[in-house]
Amino acid sequence: MEKLLVASLLVLSSTSFAATQTWDFVGSGGVSSLNRNIVPNSINLSDNDNTMSVTMTAWSAYNDENIFQSELWLSQWGTLVYNSRGEAHWTDNVGRYEFILLSFDQDVELSGISISNYMTDSDISIAAFDSNPFEGGTAMTRWSQVSGYALSSSSFSNVGSSPLNQYYALDSGANQAKTTAGTSASYWLIGAYNQYFGGGLTAGNDNLKFSGLTTKTSNTTQVSAPASLSLFAFALLAFAGRRKKLR
Predict the structure, then answer these.
(1) DSSP 3-state assignment of 115?
(2) Residue 86 neighbours by CB under 8 Å, 6+ apart
(3) Which of 4, 28, 62, 219 is deepest in the core (most CB within 10 A)?
(4) What are phi and psi of 236, to 5 degrees?
């Protein structure tokens, strides 16, 4: 009885709820706006309601070479990654594997992703991290290391088959079984499919432009002090009444 009263009080004294954020990756720039010198850059964005922020960077590499930071642009079609002269401007795995690192200012769950355009195929991989996998003393240099460092990772088949510019659900329906569903983290990788982040799909022909993302955050609000005191007093009275009956 005592344990039940304490547990009930703890549950009643706080309330959890989920908030949803929408992020728009469509900008005003085009292919001509890209810096042909492949200058690594970062892009800072706020969600559509200006409640959170994210820093975006692009990373590229073959599976057998060291990962390097690439140039990222938010075009009128969505994300473009540029890692070598003459390369097609997509987020793709034709040649090098290209990923975008999203560094949020708080932990989020990825719930949906939007693709504005794709060519040939549209398989994607995502991964969650509790710290930046490309910085610090534990910086990863190969995609196999990055996937092993992830909290969780999943791959998704033919995401572009969903209506263009509509959000593909990453954490509902059949995708509830993915290891990334329900994972909350501040750092997320999204990119064209790479087998290290979940096998069974075909690489080398996925060309995508991500146009947006939806995330979820969980918040806990504490009940005011007077309300908490009332709950505590109620628990004490209930406990005292039980002791009287036992006598």
Answers:
(1) strand
(2) none
(3) 62
(4) -65, -45
Q: What is the mean pLDDT of residues 13-19?
A: 64
CA angle 130, 136, 137 (to 5 degrees): 105
- Fill in the DSSP letter of residue 209: E
pLDDT for position 184: 97
Report whether 96 contacts 192 (CB < 8 A): no
- What 235-240 contacts at long range (C-beta under 8 Å, 24+ apart), as own/partner pairs, is 235/5, 235/6, 235/8, 235/9, 238/5, 239/1, 239/2, 239/5
**By CB neighbour count within 10 A (0-12 exposed, 13-18 middle, 19+ buried), where does 152 fall?**
middle
- The Cα 102–Cα 57 span in angstroms is 7
**Residues in a beta bridge with 64:** none
Q: Which pLDDT tens digit goes with each residue over 172-190?
A: 999 999 999 999 999 999 9
- Residue 155 is encoded by which pair of tokens? 């791959």
**Which residue from 141, 115, 116, 2 is spatially nearest to 59, judged by alpha carbons?**
141
**What's the Cα-to-Cα distance from 101 to each of 29, 59, 172, 190, rounded to whole Å?**
20, 7, 23, 7
Average pLDDT over residues 112-133: 96
Q: What residue ranges in 90-149 does DSSP mark as E strands?
A: 91-92, 97-120, 124-129
SS3 84: coil
- Of the chain, the percentage scoring pLDDT greater than 70 comes to 76
| pLDDT at residue 97, as a whole number | 97
Length of the chain: 247
| Average model confidence (pLDDT) across the chain | 84
Triad 217, 43, 61: Cα angle to 5°: 95
